[in-house]
Amino acid sequence: MKTILSVDDNVVLRAVLTDLLELWAEDQEMAFEIIEKENGREALDWVAACGAPDFVLLDVRMPVMDGAEFLRQTAQLGMDLRSRTLLLTGYADDLEEHLGSDALLMKHLRKPFVAEELFAAMNGLIAD
Amino acid sequence: LGELAAGTAHELNNALAAPMSMLSLLQMKPDMAVEKRQNMVEKAIQGMEQARTIVEGLLRFSRSERNEKTKGSINDDARFVINLFHKECAHVDIGLHHNLREDIPDVFASHQQIQQILLNLVANAKYVSHKGDSITVSTQKHCHKGVDGVMIKVADTGAGMDKETQQRIFEPFFSTKPVGEGTGLGLSICYGIVHDHGGTMMVQSHVGEGTTFSIWLPIGQQEAKQ
Question: Which chain B residues are within 8 Å of A112, Cβ to Cβ?
Answer without folding.
Answer: 13, 16-17, 19-21
